[in-house]
Specification:
The protein has five helices and seven strands. It is α+β, with helices and mostly antiparallel strands and 178 residues long. Helix 4 links the parallel strand 4 and strand 5.
Length: 178
């Protein structure tokens, strides 16, 4: 997909980007998880509760939430969300944040945009003097698990997440920040 003329831009997102993030959320979630849903209405209900423009706009008003958005040739292709001061049941420390989302459209994964988004989130967490960052990843998503392991994350636990009739098993991972 990458060619010499593709221009990648990643920047801190703002409330005006909510429509892009809502759409990217729906498409990337479908690319990653859509095949697990036997009842497509469960998937649609989840979109409406999680990836509506209103929900994303409201998320921007919370001071602990920060989003970044990635563009290739001015087209929105990915986003990431950092939740500052977000405790985990697997971490006893208090000075912890969550790398809540990094999603890039499948056609643009080879451009290493996910890596760049991750670095921006980690740098922001370090700037905020966060001691540890954590995330959850679907236990069958080997590509993502390997990505995080390669980038210094370690497994710290497991948890389930229910969406409609489907139950998902996740691995919690964390990384100490210096």
């Amino acid at each position: 997909m990458k060619n010499n003329t593709s221009k990648i831009e990643i920047r801190l997102a703002n409330k005006d980007d909510s429509k892009f993030i809502a759409l990217l959320g729906r498409v990337t979630f479908t690319e990653t998880f859509g095949h697990f849903f036997s009842d497509k209405q469960d998937l649609l209900d989840y979109y409406n509760s999680t990836f509506s423009v209103d929900k994303i706009e409201n998320s921007f008003s919370k001071p602990n939430n920060e989003y970044w958005i990635a563009f290739v040739d001015r087209l929105p292709v990915g986003y990431a969300k950092l939740k500052l001061n977000s405790q985990s049941e697997f971490i006893s420390e208090r000075n912890v944040s969550q790398l809540q989302k990094i999603y890039v459209l499948k056609d643009f994964l080879s451009m290493k945009i996910g890596f760049e988004l991750q670095n921006l989130l980690l740098n922001k967490a370090i700037e905020e003097k966060i001691s540890k960052i954590w995330l959850s990843v679907l236990n069958s998503n080997e590509r993502a698990i390997n990505f995080y392991l390669k980038n210094g994350f370690v497994e710290i636990g497991n948890h389930d997440f229910q969406i409609g009739k489907e139950n998902f098993e996740f691995i919690a991972m964390s990384k100490r920040l210096e």
